[in-house]
Amino acid sequence: MINLSPKRRVSILVHILGWSMLSTVLLLLSPLSWRVEIPTEFWIKQVFLAVLLIVIFYSNMLWFVPNVLLKGKFWLFILTIILASILFIGLLIYLDNFLKLPELMHKAFNPDEPYVYKGRRLSYDIFNVLVYLLTIGISTSVASVQKWQKDESLRRELDQQRINTELSYLKAQINPHFFFNTLNNIYALTNLDVKKAQEALLKLSRMMRYVLYENQKNETLLSREVSFINDYVELMKMRLTEKVTLNISIEEPKDDLIIAPMLLLPFLENTFKHGVSSQQPSEIMIKLEVMGKTVFFETRNHIFPVHSESPESKENGIGLVNTQRRLSLIYPDKHRLKFGIDEAKQEYWVNLTINLE
Prior knowledge:
InterPro entries: Bact_2-comp_sensor_kinase (IPR050640), Sig_transdc_His_kin_internal (IPR010559)
GO molecular function, one term: phosphorelay sensor kinase activity
Keywords: Kinase, Membrane, Transferase, Transmembrane, Transmembrane helix
Number of helices: 9
Number of domains: 2
Pfam families: His_kinase
Organism: Algoriphagus antarcticus
Distance between the termini: 45 Å
């Protein structure tokens, strides 16, 4: 037994209903209004005509349009349609003569008058040509739409595969970048305070758990992302001196909003990487607000050059570049990212707005 999907069943039902309505309107409705006794041969011809139109419709839709018209053979398609219309009319004329329909129809409408052949009515053949062209036009349109839908579906599938592959690649780059910076921080901390280094390792293990389980997903709860950010900030605090002033305002989200995991981390990394100096006072500002389903994220930090021999100086902003790309892929029309340098204050600033609807 053939197992058809619900969508396929609906499609078959639509075709059956469509042909039933078209056959009723074009082939049955008018003859039934004549109020004469119509010969059986006439209905045989009408059934044959309906079957012929169905064959023409599906032959054109399933084979001729895909293999001729959609292959760029436009003039061959037009020429074939014209020749086929001539053949179509010729076949109907032959059938009329074979069934002796002109004589039978004359007797049905004029039983008291002798039959004299006066030639075919041009209007009758024009009507049949129009029915033929209507069948060709509808089947061509259906085939073209189906081809467009198939191409569009394939394009969306390829785009989705490309996006998924690219996102996996980008996230794979961000993760080593994150661990590289964090391990550098802990390494620097071991020279200053072993106990704090141990506490930092505990926090890092909790963050690693988040990365391993949440970053493999395409989305996570904003509340978990905020907890991750807080852990990261607390980890960074352990290596800062009194010369660094932190202005942290991170709002806890109340609703179960969904966001891409580890999306904000590169901005935080950049803030602590370039905004801290062991010799000069500095200030770092991190602000996260949630209004409805919109997240507002902002950072500000003083600009201090990274030591030329530091591994961080060779990263060339990989995390920030990848984050910009992730934003454009995941939230193409739902985010606004601005960043720049305030020359007067020698500060680097980032403003990010994301609509999570």
